[in-house]
Amino acid sequence: MLIIGHRVVHDLLANQENHLLDLIADAYRLHDEGCTAVPNSVFLRFPGDARNRIIGLPAHVGGAEAVAGVKWIASFPGNVAQGKLRASAAILLNSMADGSPEALLEASLISARRTAASAALAAAKLTPDPAPTGVSLIGCGPINGEILRFTHAALPSLREVALYDLDPARGEAFAEKARTMLPEARFTVLRRAEDALAAHRLVSLATTASEPHLGLEACPAGATVLHVSLRDLTVEAILGAQNVVDDADHVCREQTSLHLAEQATGGRDFIDTPIGALLRGTSGFRRDPERTVVFSPFGLGALDMALARWVRDEARRLGRGIGIDAFLPEPA
């Protein structure tokens, strides 16, 4: 068993944005081709506790470098007020030869960067020319920090960043930290979510909202909205937009905005295409320059496995991590 802790994961992922974008794009293509197995996520909730949860995401990615495993990720939003990270995660990878567990990885950074890479891919694919010069981030937590990092890698034209958070101090702190990552960019902290929607044609929503609270009326024509947190937008906003998802079966669950839209309409005709087909060039999707397009990724476990496999392989190649020889029982 190879144990790969956070520091090693951090070191291996450093300055790998473009490579990770390629890995995530490949995983999406394989998923669209039917070369993955992604069962429904398991949500562990606690009696009398509506906020906290732990999610299990088992997945398999086929192809030349097949991998299988499970991500176990906890979301405790109250941690933020205590100066802790909202999410913590681990990934267990199994051998494709005999099924035995072979690697355990600290996965908070893997999870955040696969989320950010998927959002950045959508931004680059869905944002019409000319390339956007600005982005609005609603929710000033670690996920939007990573989305800014990866979106700038995919769209280096970005020079302006508008920020909104329920806590303005978090927005100011986010801006101060992000300036070290994008020193050439101009950051503006806004006081209303609607002002952030109106500021730029590219918007990322990464909040802890548990129910819809936001429409898209303030967006400029042809805006692209990365609906990463999945529960911010009203049913009316979803039905009025062009909708791109990672997987319709997954995203229309657990009272997401799209799940509520499905319940309201009795179907999924409002979903235009999965991103895998878009990346493969098989979707037939045509962008309406006057309408907002919304990308709503449920967050497929296949993406986590693709990144975890690469981290595991790099750790082995470089001799990083801690090997435990006596983890498994001796053969009978």
In the CATH hierarchy, the architecture of the largest domain is 3-Layer(aba) Sandwich
Number of domains: 2
Beta content comes to 15-25%
Assembly type of the chains comes to: single chain
CATH topology of the largest domain: Rossmann fold
**Helix share of residues?**
25-40%
At the fourth level of CATH, the homologous superfamily of the largest domain is NAD(P)-binding Rossmann-like Domain
Q: Mean of the pLDDT scores? A: 94
Outline: globular
Give the H and E element order. Answer: EHHEEEEEEHEHEHEHEEHEHHEHEHE
Q: Describe the largest sheet.
A: 8 strands, mixed
Whole-angstrom Rg: 20 Å
Please state the structural category.
alpha/beta
What would you say about this model in short?
The chain has 332 residues and is an alpha/beta fold. 35% of the residues lie in helices and 25% in strands. A hairpin with a 2-residue loop joins strand 3 and strand 4.
Q: In words, what does this structure look like?
A:
- With 332 residues, the chain is an alpha/beta fold.
- The chain folds into 2 domains: 2-110 and 301-323, ornithine cyclodeaminase, domain 1 (2-Layer Sandwich); 117-296, 3-Layer(aba) Sandwich (Rossmann fold), CATH 3.40.50.720.
- The chain is 35% helix and 25% strand.
- The chain is built from 11 helices and 16 strands.
- It has helices spanning 6-13, 17-32, 108-126, 142-154, 168-178, 193-199, 235-240, 248-251, 257-265, 275-280, 301-318, and strands spanning 2-4, 36-37, 42-46, 49-61, 67-75, 87-94, 101-106, 134-138, 160-164, 186-189, 202-205, 224-227, 242-245, 271-274, 293-296, 322-323.
- Strands 1, 2, 3, 4, 5, 6, 7 and 16 form an 8-stranded mixed β-sheet that branches.
- A hairpin with a 2-residue loop joins strand 3 and strand 4.
- The protein starts with a strand and ends in a 9-residue tail after the last strand.
- The model has no long low-confidence stretch (mean pLDDT 94).
